[in-house]
């Protein structure tokens, strides 16, 4: 019997770090402003039954979650059509925390990607690329970052940067720490064209990631797990990375 895969798993467990990239799922979980909090209804407990069981009510795009193409694209794939191999990717993390600290509405530019590649090499085909903004370090109540006029303020992907990743680097998927792909300074004006673009390419994205600063710029692997929901446009996801112990 060939046990080589078991040896690989033992090696991953013993010699690599496993990084949790997912917010705890609860009524307090950070989520997009348009959605209600998760509701939990106890059905039975161990004081009145032999089971503990609860019903959970939430929108699919809640907390750390996956968006399937159908989320915005008519005729796009649903969650049950996402292949297993699309749940595991080589991980590239583009750290723009310094720029975001100086401009809360910072939009990733093509030059940010080119600067990353000068340091770490060409982004590989099929990679999962994360925009590291540091946003997940905020309290849930502060993630929308309202100004005095009631407008939200947080960073996002630029369309040109995303097009370069998709069309020139042929990436597999993207992720970010914020609740939207695009910064609010433009999303309302562009009708969410940046998010539409990535989903129109028949790719998934993961929103509201956390702990991405614990991952190295390159060399890690990300696992994006979620239910095989028939017709699903999105669902809370459990994401994690396996990375070398020395970043």
From TrEMBL:
SUPFAM superfamilies: Putative cyclase. GO terms for biological process: L-tryptophan catabolic process to kynurenine. InterPro entries: KFase/CYL (IPR007325), KFase_sf (IPR037175). GO terms for molecular function: arylformamidase activity. PANTHER family: CYCLASE-LIKE PROTEIN 2. This is Kynurenine formamidase.
